[in-house]
Amino acid sequence: MTIFDQEMVGQPDLKVASICRAEERALVKLDLDFSDIRTYPPAAHAGIIILRPRTQSKPDVLALLGRLLPLLGGGEQVSGNLWIVQENGVRIREGSDR
């Protein structure tokens, strides 16, 4: 589901994160605020994926999604981790409760 599907456009990040946590949904964002592990500790979430495209143009975002999707079934766990997906690679920061 998207922010638009859930009619949460414009809601504060903390509320979005809280709802995703309650629904056990991974959060996929272009927003670097969610990479702050003090505010959004990865272990407390069903996964946080930050997309860092070169620009926020549709082709650049889709290119990162194309890089991400094959990794989701490849054995790396999303839940409890922070993923940063960039053009040149993917970094995974494991939650501290492991």
Main features:
four-stranded mixed sheet; 98 residues; alpha/beta
Task: Summarize the structure in words.
The protein is globular, with a radius of gyration of 13 Å. It has one domain (13-94). The model has no long low-confidence stretch (mean pLDDT 90). It has 2 helices and 4 strands; from the N terminus they run αββαββ. With 98 residues, it is α/β, with parallel strands linked by helices. The chain has a 4-stranded mixed beta sheet, covered by helices on one side. The longest helix has 15 residues, at 58-72. The protein has helices spanning 13-22, 58-72, and strands spanning 27-29, 48-52, 81-86, 89-94.
**Total beta-strand segments:** 4
Low-confidence stretches: none
Mean pLDDT: 90
Amino- and carboxy-terminal Cα gap = 28 Å
Counting helices, strands and paired strands, the structural category is alpha/beta
Topology as a string of helices (H) and strands (E): HEEHEE
What is the number of domains?
A: 1
> What is the strand content?
15-25%
Q: Can you count the helices?
A: 2
What spatial order of strands do you see in the largest sheet?
1-2-3-4
